[in-house]
Specification:
The protein has about 375 residues and is of the alpha/beta class. Helices cover about 35% and strands about 25% of the residues. It folds into two domains: about 5-225, P-loop containing nucleotide triphosphate hydrolases (Rossmann fold, 3-Layer(aba) Sandwich), CATH 3.40.50; about 230-350, 2-Layer Sandwich (Alpha-Beta Plaits), CATH 3.30.70.360. It contains eleven helices and 14 strands. Strands 1, 2, 3, 4, 5, 6, 7 and 8 form an eight-stranded parallel β-sheet that branches. Strands 12-11-10-13-9-14 form a six-stranded antiparallel β-sheet, with helices on both faces. Strand 11 (about 285-290) and strand 12 (about 295-300) form a beta hairpin. The longest helix is centred in the C-terminal third of the chain and has 18 residues, at about 320-340. The radius of gyration is 20 Å and the shape is globular. Bound molecules: guanosine-5'-diphosphate (GDP) and magnesium ion. The site of magnesium ion has 4 residues, from helix 1.
Amino acid sequence: MKKVKILLLSGFLGAGKTTTALRLISHVERKGLSAVYIANDQGSLLIDTEMGEGKGIVTRQVGNGCFCCRFEDLIEAVQGLIAEKQPDVIIAEAVGSCTDLVSTVIRPLKKYYGAQLEVLPFPVVLDGNRYADMQRLLGTRLSYLFTKQIEDAQIIGLSKSDSIPDDDRAAFIAALHQQYPAKPVITYSSQTGDGIAEFADALIFTPQLSADTLTPLEIDYETYGAAEADMAWVDISLDLTANDRLIAPDVWIRTCLENLRSAPSLSNRVIGHIKIALGNGVTLTKASLVDIHKEIQFDERCCDPAEACVALINARAEGQPAEIYAIVEAAVKHTASLTESQVIFREHNAFSPGMPTPVHRILQD
Ligand SMILES: Nc1nc2c(ncn2[C@@H]2O[C@H](COP(=O)(O)OP(=O)(O)O)[C@@H](O)[C@H]2O)c(=O)[nH]1
Ligand SMILES: [Mg+2]
């Protein structure tokens, strides 16, 4: 039986993994193969899942923990997709605060499921802007985690090339070549599509890397676990209803994210991502903030003004869960009053991820 290719995407929060996964899937499909997507995050109300489904892509979700700690759930999703959809390629996006994935996911997939799956080269999606920021955070636990994600990977995908000035891009690439001489660096933009074909070739169509490049990662789980816990997770689902004016989803989202961007209580914290998606049951409008110094980015603007919308917010930011929840809650309430909409808080989760406890950890091939 033909093996199903599986690509695991790693990379820090907000690096562009989901956008990359969805872009790669449409590239793969244009080449005549079928591809499906597995989202993964610490909570259960995941915007990434909505994004995949919103694009008409066959999507599954592994929630409430990362692939390494929920390995059986990953396998269940993979087996379910193979049984139901017989895809050529599965793209699985790991949690952005997770690392040590070669030992805890790649090697276990090869060892226990190698007869069924062809495990593709393992990339890290790296946002050059974040890379520059992390140089300023050197010595912190977050910088440690960020660095381990790069060390763990076989290929570096330098994402968002459209948003990096040419000079900075050349400097990032030179620094990466110097720090990680064995790792190919591929520059691409999921927004413009530049470099996507090269990235897809290196990962999926003509991979050149052998398993020997999967080197053991030296990692201190105490520091890694503490770094993950430093970034609280908050997800919130809301029902919005219009008063006199219809709700314009893009205005509502922009108002809320601008409010968060200017919140003094967020200004000194590392923001992984704050994503807001508004849907009217048919289409979705979604934007993210990954850095308070950067513009808000809309990924989807499909939703027309509506009497009622369902909103989902996913936030990952440095701090205690209750603090981050309170900051987001205040921004939502403020936005509701500015946009004259009514808001009902439906469900929410706010927590610090626990210490990673991988199901498998295979340190050597
Ligand atoms: N300018 C630009 N922005 C991008 C690109 N890829 C992703 N983004 C933006 O970066 C943010 C985070 O992207 P996402 O794919 O959700 O990152 P993830 O958290 O790593 O999955 C979103 O607002 C995207 O619109 C790109 O190629 N260019
Ligand atoms: Mg994502």
